[in-house]
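A quick aside before the break. I want you to see a complete sequence-to-structure record at least once, exactly as it would be stored in a machine-readable document. Don't worry about memorizing anything.
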Amino acid sequence: MTFFYDVDCGFCRRAAQRLQGFAPLIDVAALPLRHHAVYRSQGADELGHRAIGAALRDGGGAWWVRLAGRVLLLRPLDRMWSGVYRLIATNRPLFSRLMG
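That is the input. The structure line, written in tokens, reads:
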């Protein structure tokens, strides 16, 4: 189980470090990605917000972390979470600067 994030994105790097703290069973690796975070588990890939949700769900940690992952994976909420993910992804340079 590996979560891949964009090596050139400071916000992504910081977020992946936080993810690893919340989901200690997940390996985190940097790749030159352009559009989406990727979570690879058992030969299947999840992208974007679904990658984050699956990593939180599968990664161990506290019960509320696994619950948060499940909420990100609820199909009726896909459109909303996808929009939030796109908003952040589109403004990665701004979020990177805000996070230092």
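Two observations worth writing down. The first strand starts at residue 2 and ends at 6. The beta strands are 2-6, 27-31, 38-41, 44-47. We'll return to this after the break.
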